[in-house]
Amino acid sequence: MFVPAHPRYADAADADGHPVRVPFIAYELFDHPTAGMGTGTAAFAFTTRDRLVAALGEAQPWVATSIGPLAEAVGAYDATVLLDPRVAPGRHNWQPDDLAAYAREVR
């Protein structure tokens, strides 16, 4: 599955008290009318990268993952997974300038 997500970093300390950045992946959650009875929030999963790009645009960051771990992770937030969801055209979450700004932020 190709899932909208992006890397994040938490500032922490190692066992010796030295500062470290701990990387993790943040799945992006979306409001969606077919997301079910929970929060109305869903993680989108696409069966191909082309489908992800068609729905969310070329600038959308993503990760490849299995649907089981994804469902487990977002279920903790009372969210569901929608497979190849229909998304309103032109509502791209990320633009190329957003990616450039994000890259500068995490350096």
Number of helices: 3
Strand arrangement, largest sheet?
Answer: 2-1-5
* Main pleated sheet: 3 strands, antiparallel
Radius of gyration (CA) equals 15 Å
What is the N-to-C succession of helices and strands?
A: EEEEHEHEH
**How confident is the prediction overall: mean pLDDT?**
88
Give the number of DSSP strands: 6
Helix content: 25-40%
Q: What are the segments in which pLDDT stays under 50 over at least 5 consecutive residues?
A: none
Distance between the termini: 28 Å
**Structural class by SSE content:** alpha+beta
Tell me the β content: 25-35%
Looking at how many chains there are and whether they match, the oligomeric state comes to single chain
Shape: globular
Description:
With 107 residues, the protein is α+β, with helices and mostly antiparallel strands. The chain has three helices and six strands, in the order ββββαβαβα. The protein has helices at residues 49-56, 67-75, 96-106, and strands spanning 2-13, 19-27, 29-31, 41-45, 62-64, 80-83. The strands form two sheets. Strands 2-1-5 form a three-stranded antiparallel sheet, with no helix packed on it. It is globular and about 50 Å long.
Q: Which features characterize this protein?
A:
107 residues, alpha+beta, three-stranded antiparallel β-sheet, three-stranded mixed β-sheet, 6 strands
How does the SSE layout of this entry go?
Elements: E1 2-13, E2 19-27, E3 29-31, E4 41-45, H1 49-56, E5 62-64, H2 67-75, E6 80-83, H3 96-106
